[in-house]
Specification:
42% of the residues lie in helices and 14% in strands. The chain contains eight helices and eight strands, in the order βαβαβαβαβαβααββα. The mean pLDDT is 92.
């Protein structure tokens, strides 16, 4: 195998499909920045990466806190002059049938905060690093489970269910990907998203009381394709179901809905919205 010396940040890399992707990138000689919350699990992942010929470091953060997301971005920026790939993989599931509505440390609905807003903020803060290299890729790990966003009830204070919250957050990721791809058109940075596999054998799936259908190896192959495939060089604004491109929910192609989500997201994370030409 030809060694690939790229620097890759993977969120949620201490377990499940994120861990498998991190380990496989180590085999390619990558420098893998491992995000998670548990240092012991992170060190185990890094030991495997180093044993496979790669290198890396642990960057802790709790994605229910935007303050910690900012600290993560600042830590990466301090150490690294550029970033070749950002994989927004961290997330939480539906929460089980008996789980009620929860909020993040910032007061936002928890799944929207962890699965979407944290990655949105991290990506915006790391864009200068992604633009600093010759090319870079943003890969957002979403889901085939997608729920149209009711912009009068984004935080689901009415009609809450864990499934609705999860699926809404995943559609938000896809809408963000498409909007970001439009913004970055003509730059060296691409943005794509995917549903890697269905109910992989991960801790999140088991905690939700769901019997696994696919393996993390199947999911990791799909994510790795978006990270390393030469066929996707310069391709942007795509949604994949596994290894194949597919259409997402129709709201993801609604320019007004994407604009509304964009403006709301900048407001919620406390960043100024940059001027851009939308299509």
């Amino acid at each position: 195998m030809i060694k690939d010396r790229k620097t890759v940040l993977i969120t949620g890399a201490t377990d499940g499909v994120g861990r498998r992707v991190a380990e496989r990138l180590g085999e390619r000689g990558a420098t893998v920045l491992v995000h998670g919350r548990d240092r012991d699990r992170a060190e185990a992942v890094l030991a495997t990466i180093r044993g496979n010929g790669g290198s890396g470091a642990f960057y802790p953060a709790d994605f229910s806190s935007l303050v910690e997301v900012r600290a993560l971005a600042e830590a990466v920026i301090r150490v690294h002059g550029h970033l070749d790939v950002l994989v927004n993989n961290a997330g939480i599931g539906v929460g089980g049938r008996s789980a009620g509505r929860q909020t993040s440390r910032d007061g936002h609905e928890l799944r929207f905060a962890v699965n979407y807003l944290a990655g949105f903020l991290l990506t915006r803060l790391l864009l200068p690093l992604l633009k600093a290299g010759p090319t870079a890729r943003i890969v957002n790990v979403s889901s085939v489970g997608q729920q149209r966003i009711d912009f009068t009830n984004v935080m689901l204070t009415k009609g809450y269910s864990g499934s609705r919250a999860y699926c809404q957050s995943k559609l938000a990721q896809i809408m963000f990907t498409f909007d970001l791809a439009r913004e970055l058109q003509g730059t060296s940075v691409t943005a794509n998203c995917l549903h890697p596999a269905t109910y992989m054998n991960t801790t999140m799936v088991r905690m939700d009381g769901i019997t696994p259908v696919n393996t993390v190896d199947e999911g990791s192959r799909a994510i790795l394709q978006l990270i390393v495939s030469s066929d996707l060089e310069g391709k942007t604004g795509l949604y994949f179901n596994g290894l194949l491109p597919q259409r997402a929910d129709s709201q993801a192609y609604d320019a007004l809905a994407c604009e509304y989500l964009r403006a709301l997201s900048f407001q919620l994370v406390g960043l100024p919205e940059p001027a851009h030409a939308s299509s």
